[in-house]
User: What shape does this take?
Amino acid sequence: MASFELIEPQSVEEALVALDSDDPAVRPMGGGTALMLMMKAQLFAPTRLVSLRGIGGGFSGFSLSGDGETFCIGAMTTFSELEQSVEIARHLPVITQTMKTLANVRVRNVATVGGNLAHGDPHLDLPPVWTTLGARVRIIGQSGERVIPVEELFVGYYETSLEPGELIAQVLVPVRPDWRSFYAKVTTRAEHDWPALGLAVSVLPEGERIADVSIVLSAAVDRPTRLVNAENVLRGSVLCDEVLTRAGEAAVAETDIETDNRGSSAYKKQLLRVHLGRAIRKVMGA
Ligand SMILES: Cc1cc2nc3c(=O)[nH]c(=O)nc-3n(C[C@H](O)[C@H](O)[C@H](O)COP(=O)(O)OP(=O)(O)OC[C@H]3O[C@@H](n4cnc5c(N)ncnc54)[C@H](O)[C@@H]3O)c2cc1C
Assistant: This one.
């Protein structure tokens, strides 16, 4: 492995200065789990890594906003911190559920919320979940700060809308006690394998009627993708087999699912039909 510079700034300002470079091999580092894999595979050779571990501020920890309406989660929060939090389990139980099949405890102890989002890998479990929860990301750069919906972060396969030198600082998740959410990690070879498809759903139930719904597909597509047509079939409908079948067909028709080593396109489309129906039934308690 070629040698590189490791910088450990103690403030956000210092980190932004260390990242201010035209060299694409200068990168921020969260937990380093994805970076190290890319370096070992010789897909990436950094000239400088800027560790965000010591910068503090809003990058660490998580809390409810003063008005109780938003969970603010620092980008350097590790998955284990989320997994073990009673507050997360109470307000965002789908996050606790997702952690149970995400990687392994060694990875969860170091991998961070910000690094996971910035990596842009469409197979990752949390990005579709944040999207279906209606979360936004707070991004900080030399020229200031911006807040965008999580779905606007992903622009293609391993591609994000982050500008060079910009940092994800926080994930802002609305607290919506009336909504119910579920993440289906659908693997085809072994339970702990990368998903053939990931499906995150959130619904606002009103008795047996689906008052509102959000559905996000990942892994089988090049980025976490809202299934808008399937949502439109379900929104306002009373749950029944016929509606779920139409939603499944709408979902398949609106996505471009490629064949890969986790299954043929036809097989993954059938997985989508089946698991969408199951996920909606689960969140509707039916
Ligand atoms: C053995 C193994 C199994 C895994 N299994 C799963 C799994 O089942 N499900 C799953 O979802 N994931 C899985 N992962 C992937 C893991 O979730 C990612 O590696 C991890 O989320 C990346 O987080 P990190 O903090 O380590 O990122 P890093 O490796 O530090 O960084 C990743 C990228 O994000 C950039 N970056 C980091 N922090 C920031 C920031 N705050 N702002 C802007 N850019 C930033 C870095 O420059 C780099 O480009 C697995 C990983 C391993 C090693």
Observations:
- The mean pLDDT is 96.
- The pocket of flavin-adenine dinucleotide is lined by residues 27-35, 37, 52, 75, 102-103, 107, 111-112, 114-116, 118-119, 124-126, 162, 167-168 (CB under 6 Å).
- The CA atoms of residues 99 and 233 lie 30 Å apart.
- The two ends are 54 Å apart (CA to CA).
